[in-house]
Amino acid sequence: MGIRRMVASGLLAVPLLAMSRSRPSLPAEATHRSVSPVVLTNVSRLPATVEVTITAAPARLDLVPGGSTEVFTYNGSSPGPTLEVHEGDRVVVHFHNRLDEPSTIHWHGMHIPFAADGSPFHPVAPGASFDYVFTVPKGSAGTYWYHPHPDHRTGSQVARGLYGALIVRAVDDPLPATLTEQVMVISDNRFRDDGSIDIPARHTMPGRIDEENGREGDVIFVSGAVRPTIAIRSGEVQRWRVINASAARVYRLAIPGHTFLHVGSDGGLMPWPAFRHMPDQDIRDIAAYLKRAVKPVRNKVPDSEGPPDFWASGY
Q1: What confidence score (pLDDT) does residue 39 get?
Q2: Percent of the chain with pLDDT over 90
């Protein structure tokens, strides 16, 4: 899981470019005020209680040009809707498995009882339902994600689209509540020429390699979109939460000539922020100040097969 918060001023554009392996053509760039997934609706009227429903089901989504792609979704979307809770909340998640295979929901990084953890030891059968009930621990504010964790099917189900953001908010967050917040779930996927997701059969050597080592995709997505452009008003400050939902790809984001303000990790905010270039680790909260320039936001992990992954323009 990767977590990064970015604060930027100016116009920040984040178009994602695909790796240069064989792949379908990419859609044109689109401009958004927000790329954050929708937030699950809390139906509870009780204080300090969050009650939501998540349904895993097959669907067809327009991911790349050439036709729709058969995927797995949470509540009809990939990534699934964001679950927002506060420290100390009692959480009730009604999970319905409408897939033709067992599945679970695992709350990645959360310290909760084993029975509610969504581990491979508690699969939910096709057509069955399960209620995940847990209390969010004190001191756990941060950015997490949720995904399935069935035995020998975790990788393929995530690759087919089952993942979403989990935001745990502190009762007293020292960062200004007035900041516009973006939740960005970065993922990659591998496609066949017909636009279908390329997942080798488990009994084949490519399938075994993917299962053991993870799989790198040909196309990179931000919250399900390819090459989105995020428009930010000049002088505006935003808080970004970035989650790396890729199975194997590592991202070292950097803006040439600029540094990031590292303010936290999945364990919450740091005691004090630190200016630095983006470190090569999974989980980071960062802030970047983008001045008047056109700057690429590059993935600095060496990759001889592909171009930079992000571009940013400041005005």
Answers
A1: 98
A2: 44
Q: CA 165, CA 82: separation in Å to the nearest integer?
A: 5
Residue 226: both structure tokens together: 């390819």
Task: Kindly list the distances between the CA atom of residue 290 and the CA atoms of 72, 102, 231, in Å, as whole numbers in the listed order.
Answer: 37, 46, 13
Under 8 Å between Cβ of 60 and 248? no
Q: Global pTM?
A: 0.80
What is the 8-class DSSP label of residue 195? S
Reported as a pLDDT band with limits 50, 70 and 90, residue 22 is very low
> What whole-number distance in Å separates Cα of residue 214 and Cα of residue 205?
13
User: What kind of fold does domain 37-169 have according to CATH?
Assistant: Immunoglobulin-like (2.60.40)
CATH of domain 180-314: 2.60.40.420
Q: Indicate where the chain has its CATH 2.60.40.420 domain(s).
A: 37-169, 180-314
Q: Which residue has the higher pLDDT, 268 or 160?
A: 160
